[in-house]
Amino acid sequence: MINTMTILFYLRKSKKPGGLGRINCRITVNSEKIHLENTRIKADPKDWDPDKQKFNKNSESAKTNNLRLDAITAKLNTIYLDLESRGKRATASEIKSIYLGNTKSYYKFSEIKDLFLAQVLAVAKKKKVTGEGRWSMSTYDSYKDRLHQFSLYLEKNNLEGIFADEVKKGVINRFRSEKEQAVGRVYSGKLCQAVKTCLIWACDQDYLEQNPLEPVKIHIPNIVDTTHISNEELNLLENTELSVRLRNVIDCYLFSCYTGLSYIDIKIIGPSDVVEIDGRICLKKPRQKSETPFFIPLIAKARNLLDKYGGIKSFVLPVKSNKEMNMLLRVATEKCGIQKYLWYHTGRKKFSDTLINEYNMTKTAAIAAMGQTNEKELDAYVRVRDKRVLAEFPNI
Prior knowledge:
This protein is an alpha+beta fold. It has helices at residues 60-85, 92-99, 109-130, 137-156, 169-204, 231-239, 244-259, 263-268, 300-308, 322-335, 346-358, 363-370, 375-379, 386-392; strands spanning 5-12, 21-29, 32-43, 48-49, 54-55, 274-277, 280-286, 293-297.
């Protein structure tokens, strides 16, 4: 469809007899008509030519007013052509909005997303240096991945050019419905919440007049998934013969099971994070995600893995990208005969289960080892097993 725009200047006569009228302007784009109202130009009805839409006198004031009308026409045409060239909405209401100085609805969602991620990244980098800031690098990575998934959805549905103020209830609900089938209710909710957070930020930064998702409540079910491998499955991972590539991935995953470290923490730890306290080798370092310190005495199996990859004083664990680690982990578990769906973070859940249900550790000590701050965070990783309840319940 070819867009067309027409501009009409017309005289609105004064209600007072003999009074000066006002020149108003109306623009029409594809049959959508909208009034710019008063141009602040006054005219005597006898001096106005409605056919030419000009003043018909040769006085200096008439020439000045005609130049003002030409300037208005030129500005409206410039706005229209700019919208067209950038693939934006060339509607009458949008042109009026920009003409009057309100450009908050001028942004595509992709532009808002890029601005938001740039801000998060800048804050995260500052926090990494100074320790102060709202967002960490892991938070940036999370937002980047989740908003990318929404962008892929928009692209697949020919909505990549959607404007930020058009991301409304119907769009987000269809996105969630599609993702829910693939990743479940909890994570699909987090994906939608990332989109809403991005739009909230846009409103706070004055890029948008109003958040189109403000009336939409994104419910994330409080479902605690404590999926982890059993001791029997752990033995299979330890003892099954695998290729060097798969063994490297499994060893990193086993190290997570033995220490509770997340992917990013295993990726960045080094010999400088190893300390010896009372003759025991330990890991001590702030978590990358939250800056909360963790303190983990290393069991023999964990120490053996460090020895395998260079020794306590010079180890380098063979950590690949998170995506590749998860993909290869699934390949390796199938080769080991494990049917359970595992991803890298389940190693951290295995560790918390071991602390609570096998070592019978108090929650306070487990929280310190995990690098957490309260029981609520720990409860998202572990549930007390029946065996522990039986062991502590009086036999009377």
